[in-house]
Amino acid sequence: MKDFFKGKFTLTRRLFQIGTFLFFLAVYYTSHKQSFLLGTFYSFKLGPIHIVDPFIYLTYLGRNLLKADLFVWTVTGFLIPLLIAFLFGRVFCSWICPYNFLYEILDFLKTHLFRKKPLIYFEASPKSKKVWLALALALGIFIPPFPYYILMPGLLSVLLHQLVLHLYSFILFSLLLILMVLFVDLFFKKRIWCKFICPTGLILGMARWKGGLRIIKRKDLTCKECALCSFECPLGLTPHLGNHLEDCYNCGRCVDICKGLRKKENPLDFKFL
Ligand code: SF4
Ligand code: SF4
Question: Could you tell me if the CB of 258 is within 6 A of ligand 2?
């Protein structure tokens, strides 16, 4: 189990993931006593600031475009996640998203404890991702419940909320959906959800700025025959070849692996370009 926490970035990230889970649990347990922190991963209220999932916001906007109120009060809530993605990449996915955390736990158990052979990672071209995102936006605009069922972070946080409130009759459908997605990701095509389907992940990936925080491969240091970072990358990317930017969610696993092997002269590190 210690491999699950091994390395500076991995340990910090696990603490973030566990902290997020506990934070939302505390919010749900206290929601009848306070109104400062309220909400789920669909939309969250932090005092006067509302933070909204970008996909939820865009579909909401699309549905109400012709109305006078263009939800100016929630624009900041839409821009905050985009600004974070612009500067730090898809850190929401790797450091916060509860679906990714759950997936990583199950994948770790599957590969380490039960010694199952790893699956092939799902790959999709940038063009097919854009086409799918446009289709998902259209579906979200014309079928209002669609965004709520396709966003795993929101669905998981609602499930947690329902558990806290003992709303057991409502749990079954969200649980079935989450289990179905996990099953496909774990046993059919690895990471198909986060690399292709999840509209939030796609939007955050597109919002990222090339000069923002990223993993760099130093040109003056060679990897020889190593490539261990690529075997360990949770998204099946190849950071040692330097072609990982588009999908990379800045988890830092490859840097931990590289630092563990090469100590000082390690070719991979985080950097703002
Ligand atoms: S792509 Fe979606 S489900 Fe995957 S980690 Fe990101 S927000 Fe979570
Ligand atoms: S390339 Fe490195 S930082 Fe990016 S997802 Fe893979 S292991 Fe994480």
Answer: no
